[in-house]
Amino acid sequence: MSRTTLPGLIIGALAACAATVAIAQTPAITASSTTRDVHDAYIIPGSDALFAAEQTPPETDEDWAALAAAAQKVIDGANLLTQGDRPPGSSDWLMHAGAVVDATKITQSDAIEAQVAEEFVFTNGDMMAGCTACHQQFRNP
Hints:
This protein has five helices and no strands. The chain is mainly alpha-helical. It starts with 5 loop residues before the first helix and ends with a helix. The longest helix has 23 residues, at 117-139. The chain has one domain: Four Helix Bundle (Hemerythrin (Met), subunit A) (Up-down Bundle).
């Protein structure tokens, strides 16, 4: 092994370890977990990564894979918001969560899996619209 490849291998190994630690640190969500718990564990980190990619488009397969994981986190979080003690008994709550799931799935298929940065920015706005509608009704009435 040459000296020029060793630093790259070390950096790659450290990045893989960091990703594994980040995944392991996602707290377990139970039926009694709060809406804030779900947001902190899933929605916020997933959406932050998606929004950041609008400013710095993905370039490598690894970047696209990280976006796919971020989108899945948002989908998982929005689905969790409809379970346990979290739904506030409103069909609007379920509608908003479903809109976020549907929009994020479109972002996954039309942009992330296809690796089309221009489509990513466009479809990611639909996810944000779902989040905003829910926040306007339930968080900031």
